[in-house]
Every structure is written in structure tokens, then in C-alpha cells.
Amino acid sequence: MKRNIRRIICILGAVMCLMMATMAASAQTIIFNVTYPNDVYSYAAKKADSEQRFYVTGTSFSRSDIDLYCYSQQLQDGSVISNTVAINRYNPSKNAAYQKYAEPDLLYQLVTNASVVGFNVEGRYTP
Length: 127
Hints:
This protein has 1 helix and 8 strands. It is α+β, with helices and mostly antiparallel strands and 127 residues long. The strands form 2 sheets. A 4-stranded antiparallel sheet has the order 1-8-3-6, with no helix packed on it. Strands 2-7-4-5 form a 4-stranded antiparallel sheet, with no helix packed on it. The radius of gyration is 20 Å and the shape is elongated. Residues 1-27 form the signal peptide.
């Protein structure tokens, strides 16, 4: 009987360790909806890891012939930014490195720019 209880406790402990490890490693991805020039920022997202790259994917573009220029910026220190990437309907997913150390557990936002007024893009952003 004691042996079975120990075995169950060990199994439960291992399962909890695995669950905690996957929770800590998951990055926060948010949905964004930006329109140039009036609404060029995404909602803030917490950077959950120490990887020095951000990821952006456009899922809906109001026009097919325009690029959306994107970079990631830390809210607490605006000088912590990434390199800029351009996404469009034909090449919707990009990632780029940060120019300075991007500390985990802080808030970041996607900053966008375009050349056409009213250009709207929806998608996903992971700092």
C-alpha cells in the first residue's frame, strides 16, 4: 500500500514539473489590429522568454500592394527596440533581432508604419 502511494506521489510530482516547465517557456502572443496613421500600436504583451527576437504575422491585409513596417519596442525603456521588418499579403511572417538586450517579463508593443493612409492589417505579435 505504501509503495503504491509513493508511486502515485512520484507520478503526480513528475506531471506537475512537466506542466510548470511548459507554462514558463510559453511566449505571450497577442492579436493586433492596426491602421496607419491613426492606430499604429498593438496592445502591450509580456515577453516571456530571453530569446532576442520578435515575431509578427499578418493574417488580414486591406490592400495587397502595400508593406506594413513593424518593430518591437519595450514600454519601460523606449530605447529597447528591434530591427524593422516589412510584411505584406505575399510575405506575411517575419522576425527580427532586438538592437539592445530585451529583458523578459517586461511589456513590449508592436509599432507600425506604412505609406498609405487607411492601410489596415490584422495579425499576431510575439515580443
